Amino acid sequence: MNECVQKDDSEVVKALLLAVHGGRDKEVRRLLATGVDVNQADADGLTALMAAAMVGDYMIARMLLEAGADLCTCNKWGMTAHAIARFHGYDTVVALLDDWSAAVESSTEAAPCPRAQRT
Architecture of domain 11-111 in CATH? Predict the structure, then answer.
């Protein structure tokens, strides 16, 4: 198994991914309020932030980032949310992730996530 994948097949994580895929922001907000770990992934390593990047949902992506979604998490193919948004051509989500990453790096003096680098 790829070391990037943090697997969790719980029903709550599945519900979160389905809500994100469906663009149901109120359900995403409700699930986040229950304390679901925003960084848990399905069997393929897909996180909620990656799902939002996959469908180009700026509002939900921002909500997930505000809830602590990790920009450096990658799926079993080694793709981050940033790479997924770029692949699908969702420029507004790419810009959001770029801006969020820059803000995090400047506020924490952390090294940039190597998997989130632009190619």
Answer: Alpha Horseshoe (1.25)
Cα separations in angstroms, 94 against 14, 31, 38, 108: 24, 24, 19, 21
Distance, C-alpha 73 to centroid of its chain = 8
Domain residue limits, the chain: 11-111
Instruction: Tell me the residue length of the chain.
Output: 119
| 10-residue mean pLDDT series, the chain (119 residues) | 49 92 96 93 94 98 96 94 97 96 73 50
CA distance to 28, 39, 56, 86, per residue, from 9 (Å): 17, 13, 24, 27
